[in-house]
Give the backbone structure.
Amino acid sequence: MRPALIVALAGLTVLAACSKTETAPDPVRAVRTTTIAPQTAGGAYEYAGEIKSRTESRLSFRVGGKMLKRHVDLGDTVKAGQMLAQLDPQDLRLGQDAARAAVAMAQASYDQNAADFKRYKDLHEQGFIGPAELDRRDMALKTARAQLDQAKAQSNVQGNQASYAALLADASGVVTGVDVEPGMVVAAGTPVLRLAHDGPRDVVFAVPEDKVGLVKAMAAQPGRFKVRLWGGDAPALPATIREISAAADPVTRTFLIKADLGGANGVRLGQTATVLLELPQTAGVTKLPLSALREEQGKSTVWLVDRASMTVKSQPVTLAGADGNDAVISSGLAAGQVVVTAGVHVLNPGQKVKFYIDPGVPPASAASAASHGVPVGVK
């Protein structure tokens, strides 16, 4: 029984092997193509930015106290010397009164010592007192004079402190921020308002670490940077790089850059803008649609069409960037080669292809286009 079973199983295996179907060959695909020719590519980088004043001050009181009033609101335009906010001046005035009283007391003491010194000097000249006593009176007069000077200086300080209860605008500009409301007790130096000074405007934007070197190199070339303002159809404004941060932001790891807009009119503070970095034109490169690229083993590749056999093969390429919707190829292709620009995801190495012909194209034109390996009927 066992030998017979083995023979039967072997026969079934042979029959199964004979009945195995062969894999069907890949179909002939119709592909859109383009013929490689040297081109010139430029391109540009775009970064989102914000319009800011060249100088923006955080205004604060030089003394502490309770804020009574705020005379301006967010967005108000102010003039130099205008009162912006006010503290409760009662304690400051009391301190000023105390300082004035100290001046009066020091003045009285000085006057008394001056009169005493005059009398003792007369007594010394008459021989009633010795030089030591006259020296003591002279020293007392000098001490009283120093105390008077100290009291006057302290009185001036208290007078200044009282005047600091009013926060004045140190320049004309626009209020861009309010940090303290009436009724709050603030310490000296606590920011109360933010004031953007009138004058030049900057556009502030950030770039990643790998583009800082490019920005520095392009900053030395005039006309490379332009600013397009949002919310309008105004033409792009020329800009000049004024400042590049020396350290990256600890959170975003980007570098802050400030570009000068010069005397541009119609630019509003806080307005959003797009900063355009125009790259120099590079000759001898190739542009291909993004649909022509694919990734193979971590490398960018394209399909090349062999005109003789009408088959495709994979060709690695090096990307240099993008120009609009086209990829810029710096190496890997030669003039005259035919590259597949559509349908790359359904092709295999060595697969037979044919040039796609648009049904709406006349036969003569279609045949001429197909013989040159260009995408027929593509607008």
Remarks:
- Confidence is low (pLDDT under 50) at residues 374-379.
